[in-house]
Amino acid sequence: MIHSLCGGVIRENGMFDFAKVTFAGEERPYWYLCPFSDAEAGRKVLAPFGRGDALRTGVIVRIERNVSEQAAPYPMNRIRAIERLL
Q: Which of these, 84, 86, 27, 82, lies nearest to 49 by C-alpha position?
């Protein structure tokens, strides 16, 4: 049965910016929500890292703008956000 016919509301998907960030000493990059419109590749950022979410300095290697929540590069319920640009 179609959910919207059962009285439910179809959820609207938000559009978000994502940044792929690398950290010194780490082999792979990590995806973060990027709340800053002036972020660009090559810019240094402060982002939570690891189990304790300790803030570490990283570098943006790629920006994906206006991406639907359904096409996010990382699950939305587990992704973290960049704290600030440096």
A: 82
